[in-house]
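Hello support,

Our group uses your service weekly, and this is the first time we've seen a run hang past the timeout. The protein is Probable nicotinate-nucleotide adenylyltransferase. I'm not sure whether the cause is the sequence or the server load. Input pasted verbatim:
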Amino acid sequence: MENENGSKRGIGILGGTFDPIHLGHLYIAEAVREELSLKEIVFIPTGMPPHKLQLKVTDSFHRLKMAQIATNSNNYFSVTDIEINRQGPSFTIDTMSLLQKAYPSRTRLYFITGEDAFLTFEDWKCYQTLLSTISFVIVTRLGNRDNELNNKINNFKELYNADITWLSIPSLEISSTDIRRRVKEGKSIKYLVSEGVELYIEKKGLYRD
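Update from on-call engineer: The timeout came from a worker crash unrelated to the input. Re-ran successfully.
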């Protein structure tokens, strides 16, 4: 990413079901923003994830609202409903195409994803186009240098001149699945989600069934 003298402004893109959004998501976003000196991190709650079509997902209104609540204290964070408002499955290529049109031409988009998702990247719709048009940030646990991932990154760089950053950060062992389970069992989720999200879940009676 270049500097302000004529360079591209970096915008990080972090998509997810966010059911619910938790402190681990926020931690990863801030770590990436700081490491790459990005101008902003945009959170994108998914509409209908193609890999989760058969799973029960909380209503998009609540997931969007929780993402907004969780991020509103950080001026570098924003949330968009770009996927939630689109009908049908949410494919990354479609979302990124819309975002590229929405931002000035000099803006560089950095798609943030994890190791597991990236290892199946060749299954993604139009993955070659994604590799040649946007940057990628692969986030893994600190100290985890997987040979399979390293080989895939190098291969993509060679074939598509892909811009891929591998970022290892300390891991917060928090999962949305565990949070939903804890709520259902009547257990505390304090320090797993932001206070605002905790209150919202309680007020709306989410995850009790």
